[in-house]
Amino acid sequence: MTRKDKWGNPVSHGSTDAVARLERATELLACYQADPVAELDTAIAEHPDLVMAHAIRGGIMATTSDKAFDGELAKDLQAAEALARQANDRERGHIAALKAWHGGDYEKATELWGRIAMAYPRDLAAVQFAHLGDFYLGYSAMLRDRIARVLPHWDASVPGRGYVLSMHAFGLEETGDYAHAEETGRAAIALNGKDGWGVHAVAHVLEMQGRAAEGAAFLGDSAEVWAPNSLFSFHNFWHQALFHLDGGDTKAALKLFDEKISAGNFGQALELVDGSALLWRLSVLGHDVGHRWKDQADKWETRIEDRYYAFNDMHAMMAFVGADRPASRKALLASVEKAATASQGTNAMMTREVGLPAVKGIEAFGRGDYRAALDLMLPLRGKASRFGGSHAQRDVFSWTLTEAAIRAGDRALAETLAAERLALKPDSPLNRAWRARAEAVAAPKAA
């Protein structure tokens, strides 16, 4: 017996309770609230033949961008495939997407989820997984356009409309439409203040526009609503730490690292990326972050041989530089070089195009070879999106290069990079300080 969920999507299972659990898990996931996996596990325990429970659980494991969850993804895929004969077309589409991701073809998986969303525009899980895939692939325009495709089907009468607005807001921000992005993101938050992705989209707008004081206040004032039980709070607090850092308040940034960003001590890749990204920015500016690099490096060392997502590898190298672990740096370089030689898989492309030179550039910066860091990383600026992340996350390239140019004594390049940053954020105290330091670099002596 086929039923439909509250969004009108067909479910090849006759149990009303099973469908209700799918709906609950889907909304928890869309809101980034705990715990969609627990809800799905209960559904599977009660209804082991519930295909979509296995498919959504697998999608969650895939979009952690962490090989540590690959075993769970494989288990979910195997269970879903065993039920494929009784599945409907929508469910088989989800299974195909999982199979592609598990096989290393992140581009194909993202497109398959996107195709499901086109056929079933109220399939919130498919929309979200495609959106996350576009994020990991650095497909800025698709972050916007893939959501625009389904928006007409999510009017005010449809439950969960705010989640789709949140995704659209983030896509608008990543494509530079900041006014529309902020308006849309705030509209989503007005529908549900717990919507972590909506908060995230507005935080990105404030970051890109250099509204640091406003951004810190926005996140701090609203945290009591969105942070409790949030699976995403560490990342929004990372944004708040960036706002504090831009204003020169390193103490507040480190406090957030200790109490909010790494406090869960879970150590999944997404959390480790944020931890490394914040500590690296602080360290590049010359701030002593104390013992904090050790924990980061310990956890990244278990992932040296993953060769799963090049974006992660760059942040692992930051930790190995920060913790002064030459052996780990050497091992990671060898692993990333091996990843670049793979004959297929999305990560192989990412590693060849951006990941390997980025990892080498961070390592060169760490050993004080700033000229090598510049030579390796400067050409990546225009194509860094090819290994995923957001504009705010990839700003680490500009951040590192500006400091490298100053330390290398290259006044012309340092002034150029500082000018770039100031053109985007003219009121940033951090950018103004970089300009002053760039102008203080000794001019080359005449021959």
TrEMBL record:
<dbReference type="InterPro" id="IPR011990">
    <property type="entry name" value="TPR-like_helical_dom_sf"/>
</dbReference>
<keyword id="KW-0802">TPR repeat</keyword>
<dbReference type="InterPro" id="IPR033891">
    <property type="entry name" value="TTC38"/>
</dbReference>
<comment type="similarity">
    <text>Belongs to the TTC38 family.</text>
</comment>
<protein>
    <recommendedName>
        <fullName>Tetratricopeptide repeat protein 38</fullName>
    </recommendedName>
</protein>
<keyword id="KW-0677">Repeat</keyword>
